[in-house]
Specification:
The chain is of the alpha/beta class. Helices cover about 45% and strands about 20% of the residues. A hairpin with a 2-residue loop joins β4 (about 115-125) and β5. The relative contact order is 0.18.
């Protein structure tokens, strides 16, 4: 069992015990977070769904991320991560929204260096974002971002 699957299994267990639901909004990880959650037996009792919002147009149209925010800061930003998580939470009717956005490389994006990642978490009490700086290949950075998202989801479930 990979560390990602261990984290996902724990998140599914905690969500089911607490009777809470989760929705994802993923850019950088392109569905990896929801996929690893869905690998866990019982996930259908807590995973509402997920949106892969790779393009800003999808972040804006589907997740209701403000276009002026995207124009001002680009897609790799804590405010955008928080708005994505909120958008997933509301549009998919979940208790908790989790989002990922960042730069997996090989080139910088929106003025941010490779390895810059933001994880968003949204609950009924509001949204927060967490900044990370990972190193490695594109797949390694994406995997680390998925792990960070699952860790932040676990924190939200424990709150």
């Amino acid at each position: 069992m990979t560390n990602l699957h261990h984290l996902a299994g724990e998140a599914v267990r905690q969500a089911l015990e607490a009777g809470r639901t989760v929705a994802t909004a993923e850019s950088l990880t392109a569905g990896m977070v929801s996929a690893v959650l869905a690998d866990t037996p019982g996930a259908s009792g807590m995973l509402q769904g997920g949106v892969v919002a790779y393009q800003n147009s999808v972040k804006e149209a589907v997740l209701n991320v403000a276009g002026d925010l995207l124009d001002r800061v680009g897609s790799v930003d804590g405010g955008v991560a928080g708005a994505m998580a909120s958008g997933a939470r509301t549009s998919l009717g979940a208790d908790i929204g989790v989002s990922t956005t960042g730069v997996a490389g090989p080139e910088p994006h929106d003025g941010k260096p490779v390895g810059t990642v933001y994880i968003g978490i949204a609950t009924a009490s509001g949204a927060a974002a967490y900044e990370y700086h990972f190193e490695g290949t594109r797949p390694e950075i994406r995997g680390q971002a998925c792990g960070a998202a699952l860790e932040r989801l676990l924190e939200a479930l424990s709150a």
